[in-house]
Amino acid sequence: MYYVVSNLVMPLTRSRRLSYAELAGPNKVNWFISHFWGTSFRHFVFSIRKHAESVAVANNYIGNWADRTYWICSLSNNQWNVAEEVGQSWEESSFYLTLTCGYCAGTAMILDDEAMPLTRAWCLFEVLQTKEIGDRQNSFEGLWLCTATGVLHKGKAGVDVAMRIAERLSTLKLEDATASVQKDKDMIDDLVSQMPGGFNAMNAFVKQNIAEATSSAPLKGFCCRKPEQ
User: Fold this and answer.
1) Which of 31, 78, 89, 194 has its CA 20 to 30 Å from the CA of residue 98?
2) What is the pLDDT along the chain (229 residues), one digit of tens a residue?
3) Residue 210 located in a structural domain
4) By three-state DSSP, how is residue 120 classified?
């Protein structure tokens, strides 16, 4: 995604200094995409297609899978004014505002072979917000873990992906997550610290959330082992 933004999005939007979505013609969001910018763009695109096809099957409109619309930060945020998009607090961030807009159906996390989104502060923030919205709204579809071979919690992804997820779950610590901008990490760390139980509670919370999402994948027992406190 770094290459796509630098070599495609920025040149295409330079004259008007808009987001790519604004330039191409925005639409109402159906799903929020959570991802790591270092993931192969080919893998990224294939994973979103697998998700769109799974959603279409689940909702009985197989022939119209391409009609789904996705909020993707690199394309939906104005890359010429990222500071304004992120805001001064997490409540002002475009990530939070999109997830809580009222017509976002859920979050699709794009996982590569190393499950890199699980090491990124903003991605973990998105998982946390996704779970909290799901607790408040019965219609919200929560977190879908997506790979180029299928949607993991639908049991259609490969065994190797499930094994890597299990490995990440055994060592994942929210406080170790990184961000490209230090103030973003500081903001997310402050948010977690102010919540009951702080990082210990959030580590268990996030691990359990992901474990539930992978419960129908291969190696179920290993993936869902109790998180370390």
Assistant:
1) 194
2) 999 999 999 999 999 999 999 999 989 999 999 999 999 999 999 999 999 998 988 877 766 888 889 999 999 999 999 989 988 888 888 999 999 999 999 999 998 877 788 888 889 889 888 888 988 999 999 888 898 888 877 666 667 776 776 677 677 777 888 888 888 888 888 888 887 788 887 777 777 766 666 666 555 444 444 444 4
3) yes
4) strand
Rounded Cα distance, 20 and 13, in Å: 6
Instruction: Give domain status of residue 228, yes or no.
Output: no
Q: How big is the chain by its Cα radius of gyration, in Å?
A: 17
Phi, psi angles (nearest 5°) of residue 116 = -60, -30
Domain hosting residue 180, numbered range: 2-223
The count of structural domains within the chain is 1
Has residue 47 been placed in a domain? yes
pTM score, two decimals?
0.84
